[in-house]
Amino acid sequence: MTLTIKKHDKNPVVRPGELPWRMVATMNPAVIYENGKFTMFERAAGSLQPFQCFLGKLESTDGVNWKHTSDKPAITAELVGFKYGSIQDPRIVKIDDDYLMTFALRPYSYDTNTTGYGVPKSFQHKYPGFSGETKDNQSRSGILRSKDMVNWEFVSFITHGEIDDRNNILFPEKINGKYALLRRPSGFVDTAVKFTESPGIKISYSDDLKTWSEPETVILPAYEWEGNRIGGSTPPIRTEYGWLTTYHGVENENLKLNRVCYRMSAMMLDINDPTKVIARCETPLMEPEHYYEKVGVYIPNVVFPTGAVNVNGIIHIYYGCCDTAIGLATVPLIDLVNHVMSCKL
Question: Which CATH class is domain 6-341?
Answer without folding.
Answer: mainly beta
